[in-house]
Design a protein that fits this description.
This is FAS1 domain-containing protein. By secondary structure, this protein is of the alpha+beta class. The chain has a 7-stranded mixed beta sheet. A 7-stranded mixed beta sheet has the order 17-16-22-21-20-19-18. A 7-stranded mixed beta sheet has the order 24-23-29-28-27-26-25.
Length: about 675
């Protein structure tokens, strides 16, 4: 019969588990052995059951010093049960040295046959991983001696540890192999029917066995022979440098603890060639798929720069000298042009990141692919599936002619890697011409620690690069999260999110002008001075600039902005205005702005783009036709302001304040003397 104290302890432990309390096991009274804690804690019943059924594990935990890594029951619900679970799982969750978290090194030896290691990753004192599983910090470091006085430690973890297993009825046993022995004996291992013979043969032929046998802790990405819907690579393309690119030395990278997109040097990072590897993931329906990228930042005649991505088809396989991930194709090898990259790699796979992009290309006639083939150096900014599935753009996708024209907005007739764009963006905002006349892409790079985020704007749409530097023989592909050229923001949101329009956005906010710019029933044409224009004003007229950004002058700021704004039943593109000017024999065009209903400008069209003339000065249109859902923006290089705008209004404001002071003074005099 269970004692009331034991039942009380078990309830307390269960409460800790279910409520996520910060109280550790050790604070609940160290009076029960580990095996009894497992037995009496209902949320640890699964790990207790498999230990109890395994004679070796059960005997070990009763007689010896141990550390137990105990998955809670929820962890067991996430795995598919296998016949061999009782044979492999119990002993792989036990090590015969009692160790608290702070005592754990880079690995510990399990009690499974051959003593295969359990790898430890410490991201912080409170964030510790055991292989792929995260230690539940508040439920770790529970200590107690067993009945023989042997010290024992319990750590609760959030996933079930999965050791390398043999195939059922395998004629040969393989105990605790290193990465080379893993490949050499793959036919005897339970690898979900994957084979690695091609890669193994190349490693043998090129005498690279030693790099897979090195002691220590490393990460090995091993290509399988063939995966459905992935292109097969010619074996002879797997050379010495390519093999080295599949190994990350001195880092054991399980998927769980490894930061997405963090770059690690591979063995192919040398004086002559430099290749990084990084991990990423993508949600595909109710599943999450993981990928590894090799990024060749310095290449040679045989190995071009750019990234090659492979899907991780079987992950987190622990071996004696690190971890193995089986991948869908070899890294580093670039053997398709941009067109072939889209066709062969993605068109037959509905879960591929460019599946919708390919569909839209084919729906618009398919000639876009031929155009890509004809370009010897091209950069393609390809929208993801999620970008095309955005409900706000579905009506635009029905217009095939419009979509075909937009596709050209996504290509640049030169090779641009992320590093190229970063280098061009130093001390300026980099822009580059697309295949649409007068339509540039504008880039912005944000760096935070080791992470870099690249955003771009094209046709009035801001997009973020979500997967960069995908290599092709004739260019580079970057995956972006929005379709360029299809507006998805109102005018006010565009102002708020464009990093080059901060000053105009600020003045519009403090003067309340922006309040109306979200109205989707109206159509706005807004000549917006970019930040450069305001800096120019600060230099040319510092007094006026200073006053406009004072709260008490917000009404004047609003009046000046209203000179830049047209509200009508339609929008005015720069081409519309140019055509109207041509109809007027290149004379002035009437702009019915909110401030000046009789304002006139001239339009000039040149190889540098559009310019407008206002008050006898030509002003460059930095970006034309930035489309929004309720209007259009033309970004200009000068504020449309006269000195008299601020001086006259400022004087009026000063006189008004003076008059108010005089009235108050008269009131005070009247109050005290009457």
């Amino acid at each position: 019969m269970k004692s009331s104290t034991t039942t009380g302890f078990a309830s307390a432990v269960l409460l800790v588990l279910l409520c996520g309390s910060t109280v550790a096991f050790s604070l609940n009274g160290n009076y029960k052995a580990i095996i009894d804690t497992l037995a009496w804690t209902s949320d640890l019943s699964e790990i207790y059951s498999i230990i109890e059924r395994n004679q070796i594990a059960n005997t070990t935990i009763h007689l010896r010093s141990v550390t137990v890594f105990a998955p809670h029951n929820e962890a067991f619900l996430k795995i598919t049960k296998q016949e061999s679970d009782d044979e492999y799982l119990p002993c792989y969750h036990i090590t015969n040295v009692p160790m608290k978290l702070e005592q754990l090194g880079k690995s510990v030896f399990s009690e499974l046959d051959g003593n295969p290691p359990i790898w430890i990753t410490k991201k912080s004192p409170e964030e510790i991983y055991v292989n792929q599983a995260k230690v539940v910090y508040n439920l770790a470091n529970y200590e107690h001696n067993n009945t023989f006085g042997k010290p024992q430690v319990l750590h609760v973890i959030d996933q079930v540890l999965q050791p390398l297993r043999m195939k059922k009825n395998s004629p040969q046993n393989v105990y605790n192999p290193n990465a080379w022995e893993f490949m050499e004996n793959a036919e005897f291992l339970d690898l979900d029917s994957y084979h690695t013979n091609t890669f193994l043969q190349r490693v043998q032929n090129l005498d690279k066995k030693s790099v897979f046998s090195n002691q220590g802790g490393h990460t090995f990405f091993i290509p399988v022979d063939e995966v459905a819907n992935y292109p097969k690579v010619k074996p002879e393309k797997i050379d010495v440098k390519v093999i080295d690119a599949h190994i990350v030395p001195d880092n054991v990278l399980f998927l769980g603890p490894t930061n997405e997109e963090e770059q690690f040097k591979t063995l192919a990072f040398t004086d002559m060639i430099k290749v990084f590897a990084s991990l990423s993931k993508a949600a595909e329906g109710d599943k999450t798929k993981y990928y590894v990228s090799s990024d060749t930042v310095v290449g040679d005649d045989v190995h071009p720069t750019g990234a090659v991505v492979a899907e991780i088809v079987k992950a987190n396989i622990p071996v004696r000298n690190g971890v193995v991930h089986l991948i869908s194709r070899p890294l580093m090898i670039v053997d398709n042009n941009v067109k072939q990259f889209i066709e062969q790699s993605y068109k037959d796979r509905e879960d591929s990141v460019l599946h919708r992009f390919y569909e839209e290309i084919m729906n618009s006639g398919g000639d876009f692919l031929e155009k890509l083939t004809a370009m010897p150096n091209v950069t393609l900014f390809a929208p993801s599936n999620a970008a095309f599935n955005d409900q706000s753009i579905q009506s635009y996708l029905l217009n095939r002619t419009y979509i075909r024209s937009l596709l050209d907005l996504h290509i640049v007739n030169r090779r641009l890697s992320i590093d190229d764009i970063v280098a061009e963006s130093i001390d300026k905002r980099f822009q580059v011409q697309t295949e649409v006349p007068r339509k540039d892409l504008f880039f912005n790079v944000v760096t935070s620690g080791k992470n870099r985020t690249l955003t771009l704007e094209g046709g009035g749409v801001n997009a973020t690069v979500v997967q960069a530097n995908l290599a092709a023989t004739n260019g580079i592909i970057h995956i972006i999260d929005h379709v360029l050229g299809i507006p998805s923001s109102t005018v006010d949101r565009k102002l708020a999110t464009d990093p080059t329009l901060n000053e105009t956005n600020y003045l519009g906010q403090v003067s309340s002008l922006n309040d109306q710019l979200g109205d989707v029933q109206k159509r706005f044409t807004y000549f917006v001075p970019r930040d450069f224009a305001w800096k120019r004003l600060a230099i040319d007229n510092p007094s006026a600039y200073k006053k406009l950004f004072m709260p008490e002058y917000s009404n004047i700021a609003r009046q000046i902005l209203e000179r830049h704004l047209i509200i009508a039943d339609k929008v005015f593109t720069m081409d519309d205005l140019r055509k109207e000017a041509n109809n007027n024999y290149n004379l002035s065009v009437h702009l019915p702005t909110v401030r000046d209903v009789s304002m006139y400008i001239k339009i000039k069209d040149s190889v540098e783009g559009y310019s407008i003339e206002w008050r006898n000065e030509w002003i460059h249109v930095h970006r034309s036709d930035v489309r929004c859902t309720n209007g259009i923006i033309h970004v200009i290089d000068k504020v449309l302001i006269d000195e008299s705008d601020v001086e006259v209004n400022g004087a009026i404001a000063t006189k008004s304040i003076t008059a108010l002071v005089l009235v108050l003074a008269q009131c005070l005099v009247f109050y005290y003397f009457n």
